[in-house]
Design a protein that fits this description.
By secondary structure, the protein is α+β, with helices and mostly antiparallel strands. It has a single domain, classed as Aminopeptidase (3-Layer(aba) Sandwich), CATH 3.40.630.30. The chain is built from 5 helices and 7 strands. Strands 1-2-3-4-5-7-6 form a 7-stranded mixed sheet, sandwiched between helices. Strand 3 and strand 4 form a beta hairpin. It starts with a strand and ends with a strand. The relative contact order is 0.15. The mean pLDDT is about 90. Pfam families: Acetyltransf_1. It comes from Aliirhizobium smilacinae. InterPro entries: Acyl_CoA_acyltransferase (IPR016181), Bact_Acetyltransf (IPR050832), GNAT_dom (IPR000182).
Length: about 170
């Protein structure tokens, strides 16, 4: 199937929410359990949370769309705490679409959306070795660790990875 990367719109909210729920459970149930993941999905990936990201100034929300369904999503925004830095908040590919290059294509597009940025950061849940490997292949390297991934008091440790961006 051929997927085209495009900017997400309000009409995509429910499809994005469904994709994030499916992908989060596939990725994290084994580490955190179904109940904890359901709680994360309900809070972090509600329709309102997605809508607020879609409208965020200095942000970009992309989908990989084959005309029938969304195979993956990516969301990044300028990181206000660090000059010339973009935070890649989400890059998820539907489990049945993984290993088809969708994640790589989404990343290739999103890293060009911030021409003034010099660094892109991403936080990766510590047990998610597959994601760490993916980001390493894209040129990211570990720069720090954190105890609270995703939300305050989450109790979920993560690593912080960075990649230097080419100036356009």
């Amino acid at each position: 199937m051929v997927y085209f990367v495009r900017t997400a719109g309000q009409e995509d909210v429910e499809k994005i929410r469904a994709l994030l729920g499916e992908t989060f459970h596939s990725s994290y149930d084994q580490f955190y359990g179904v109940d904890k993941v359901s709680q994360m999905v309900g809070g972090w990936h509600s329709a309102n949370a997605i809508r607020s990201r879609l409208g965020k100034k200095d942000g970009e929300f992309l989908v990989a769309d084959d005309g029938r369904r969304i195979g993956g999503i990516a969301y990044a925004a300028i990181y206000p705490k660090m000059a010339k830095t973009v935070m890649l908040h989400q890059l998820y590919v539907r489990p049945s679409c993984q290993n088809e290059g969708i994640g790589r294509d989404l990343f290739a597009e999103i890293e060009t959306c911030f021409p003034d940025a010099e660094i892109m950061r991403v936080e990766v849940a510590l047990p998610n070795v597959r994601a760490m490997s993916f980001y390493e292949r894209l040129g990211f390297s570990e720069v720090d660790r954190m105890e609270e991934w995703g939300a305050p008091n989450s109790g979920l440790p993560a690593i912080i990875m960075e990649k230097r961006l080419l100036q356009h």
